[in-house]
Write a structure and sequence with these properties.
This protein has 2 helices and 10 strands, in the order E-E-E-E-E-E-H-E-E-E-H-E. By secondary structure, the protein is mainly beta. The protein has one domain: L,D-transpeptidase catalytic domain-like (Beta Barrel), CATH 2.40.440.
Length: 163
């Protein structure tokens, strides 16, 4: 199913996400993209640029701060104490929107495949610094923001990531 007239626009320079439907902005929020910057190569830990779409959605009806590993709920709920006990863990919380690249050779296929790189829009701990990039390639959102966005988008919603 292709979502008509809706798009998620992610600006790497401003670390902002905007959701638009029929050319009207319905939602905007800060994001935190890859600490390594923009890039499409496998194992680069960079955020891929270009045109993508929402391939799959995970976490409908899960509580805020639900912990996911491999797109599966672990049964854990993130707390600052759990974070202290697991330093360095890349937390994926609350909801996941899995992206698939739409540009063959740029972000789809071969060694530049967004889907095979498991690039998501996902929630993260509340203490993440949204003033700078800091992820391992994904696009991090505050838990309240990913919950709102999750409800707005359909499978096939277009996603543009640019500098």
């Amino acid at each position: 199913m292709v979502a008509q007239n809706s798009i998620i626009d992610i600006d790497l320079n401003t670390q902002q996400l905007a959701f638009r439907r029929a050319d009207e902005e319905e939602f905007r929020c800060p994001v935190s993209t890859a600490e390594n910057g923009a890039g499409e190569k496998n194992d680069s830990f960079c955020t891929p640029r270009g045109r993508h779409e929402v391939h799959a959605k995970f976490g409908a009806n899960c509580a805020a701060n639900t912990v996911f590993v491999g797109r599966q709920c672990t049964g854990e709920v993130y707390t600052p104490e759990l974070g202290r006990l697991n330093p360095g863990r890349d937390w994926m919380l609350t909801r996941i929107l899995w992206l698939s690249g739409l540009e063959e050779g740029k972000n789809s296929g071969g060694d530049v495949d967004t889907l095979k790189r498991y690039i998501y829009l996902h929630g993260c701990p509340d203490d993440v610094d949204f003033d700078r990039p800091g992820s391992h390639g994904c696009v991090r959102l505050r838990n309240d923001d990913i919950t709102v966005l999750f409800e707005l988008v359909e499978l096939g919603t277009q996603v543009t990531i640019h500098e």
